[in-house]
């Protein structure tokens, strides 16, 4: 059932007269936001939006974007937010597949399609509430928290950030897309609208955004008011984490997915320092199991309802476990380590190879900032190992990197094709687009 989220928040709020939503244009108290949502929902009703419908909308992390989401929910419509970064063809495809379908979910999130065809994931209001409270138990929220939204609500991390802030009563700053200079200023309390003076205390970033923020600040640490930079959505290179820590940034590294309504496990800054590489223990309400084959299975109150039109059985086994496709392990403290993915396995000449293993070896070279390893068709071996490298700025010696790999990798694991680019291609959710990398290397 679709719930009027804002009305639910109002019913539980201690006060409706403190800032709740803040944007470059100004700020709204909870009561003022309610009035804005009322006006917008009236307009949408006049356009034919009604309960039971799946409504697609190009969603951005702006005040109008947040108001639009809340207004659709007030009318009982299921929202299907789409990223503004989708191409026209991708938008048409998503809208075609999401049109003329009915759902009782709170939201349908269009998955990125890194390991197959894109499809909608049905997320309930209960999923969003469980995610908010599970995250809060781990991250210890305070009444003074100010969350900055930069990710599109089409990304599960962007949607969950918005609903988490509203459900937990934190201030929500909706500034649109990521801009390193703007985000840096807001963390320092600069560029805020007149009448609002609380600097950002929390920000959720994908690794590429963290890199841009660090580059912009050139070693300048955040103020003491800043509590967490939540890093997720893609692999964060160890060198990037180390650089951020050296600059004084409190990083909380998280592991999650659309099918589990964002966070599954999160490591707070101290754990990130003492156990680099772990994503921490599962958040409250989520269980994690590592199967006999090393695959990570998850279940709990945050697990989505299923894939659109296919039901719960499309997403979970009979015991409720979602099989993530990620490979990992749980250590003696119950902390989770992600070590690879089934879909990142390469079979070359009958040898099964883990792409993540090769990527980590290559990232260990001082001249390599990041790497994406894939298998491409090969007449002799079936598949061969291919890599797209992102070098550290300055001189780059590919022969030296090849020598490094030759010393550390067995013959079958050594890349046979190499491509150098300034950055790894990513999809709208900030994840490395392995299919595009594979296409680039296959055609190279």
What topology emerges from the helices and strands here?
Layout: H1 5-12, E1 19-23, E2 26-29, H2 30-46, E3 54-58, H3 63-74, E4 78-82, H4 88-98, E5 107-110, E6 120-123, H5 125-139, E7 146-149, H6 156-168, E8 171-174, H7 180-187, E9 202-205, H8 207-217, E10 228-231, H9 238-246, E11 251-257, E12 262-267, H10 269-274, E13 286-290, E14 295-300, E15 306-307, E16 322-330, E17 336-341, E18 345-348, E19 351-354, H11 355-363, E20 368-378, E21 382-391, H12 398-408, E22 417-420, H13 434-442
Parallel strand pairs: 1-8, 3-4, 7-8, 7-9, 9-10, 10-11, 21-22
Antiparallel strand pairs: 1-2, 5-6, 6-15, 11-12, 13-14, 14-16, 16-17, 18-19, 20-21
Tell me what you see in this structure.
With 444 residues, the chain is α/β, with parallel strands linked by helices. The protein has two domains: 5-339, 3-Layer(aba) Sandwich (Rossmann fold); 349-442, ANL, C-terminal domain (GMP Synthetase, Chain A, domain 3, 2-Layer Sandwich), CATH 3.30.300. Helix content is 31%, strand content 26%. The strands form six sheets. An eight-stranded mixed β-sheet has the order 2-1-8-7-9-10-11-12, with helices on both faces. It has a four-stranded antiparallel β-sheet with strand order 13-14-16-17. It has a three-stranded antiparallel β-sheet with strand order 5-6-15. A hairpin with a 2-residue loop joins strand 18 and strand 19 (351-354). The mean pLDDT is 91.
**What's the number of structural domains?**
2
The stretches of 5 or more residues where confidence is low (pLDDT under 50) are none
Distance between the termini: 49 Å
The structure class reads alpha/beta
Tell me the strand percentage band. 25-35%
Query: How many beta-strand elements?
Result: 22
CA radius of gyration: 22 Å
- The CATH architecture designation of the largest domain is 3-Layer(aba) Sandwich
Overall pLDDT level: 91
- Tell me the overall shape: globular
* Total of DSSP H or I helical runs spanning 4+ residues: 13
Strand order of the largest sheet: 2-1-8-7-9-10-11-12
What oligomeric arrangement do these chains adopt? single chain
